[in-house]
Amino acid sequence: MRKIILMGRTGSGKTTLTQKLQNNPLKYKKTQYINHYDLIIDTPGEYTETKGLGAALALYSYEADVVGLVISSTEDYTPFPPNITCMVNREVIGIVTKADREDGNCRKVKEWLELCGCKKVFKVSSKTGEGIKELIDYLS
Ligand SMILES: Nc1nc2c(ncn2[C@@H]2O[C@H](COP(=O)(O)OP(=O)(O)OP(=O)(O)O)[C@@H](O)[C@H]2O)c(=O)[nH]1
Ligand SMILES: [Mg+2]
Question: Measuring from each residue's beta carbon to the nearest atom of ligand 1, which residues come in under 6 Å?
């Protein structure tokens, strides 16, 4: 599998998705620093939310093969500006998380990710497993 780095706001579901992709039990744990696993790099939401740390994320993307921009279906706004995918020389995909949430809007979030420049956007739920196989197949 290719290594993916997950970036997105606090609470967007990066760690839960990491646990699901690794076939581990889902257990809430606030990410305090960059966690570097064999095939996944899980970053704290603060890196996406803080301007100065955004540069660190861009540099850290070189440790991965694929960059995953993560936004929850329940978000009111996107932290990622248009055409941001050109900031890194890695493949960048979009990941809409919490697809199971009835109050979410997957279509809107998918459009935000496409505006970022993501050619491919996955809709996943770590709770129900929706879209997880498709994401694993893509990375394999
Ligand atoms: N309904 C639903 N809730 C989810 C899903 N994924 C994550 N959550 C919930 O969202 C909350 C935040 O999830 P995390 O995975 O910790 O979020 P994070 O992006 O790692 O957050 P930081 O570590 O703060 O950057 C937790 O309460 C999860 O249970 C999902 O697919 N569906
Ligand atoms: Mg986390």
Answer: 8, 10-16, 28, 30-31, 44-45, 97-98, 100-101, 125-127
**Which residue shows structure tokens 């890194």?**
88
Residue 6 CA to ligand 2 center (angstroms) comes to 9
Express each pLDDT in 73-117 by its tens digit: 999 999 999 999 998 999 999 999 999 999 999 999 999 999 999
Q: Are strands 66-72 and 40-42 parallel, antiparallel or unpaired?
A: unpaired
**Would you say how long the chain is, in residues?**
140
Domain residue ranges of the chain, discontinuous segments joined by +: 4-139
Residue 72: what pLDDT?
98
Mean pLDDT of 41-61: 93
Q: Which numbered atom of ligand 1 lies nearest the CA of 43? A: 25
Q: Which of 80, 75, 88, 84 is nearest to 47 (CA)?
A: 80
| Domain spanning 4-139: CATH superfamily | P-loop containing nucleotide triphosphate hydrolases (3.40.50.300)
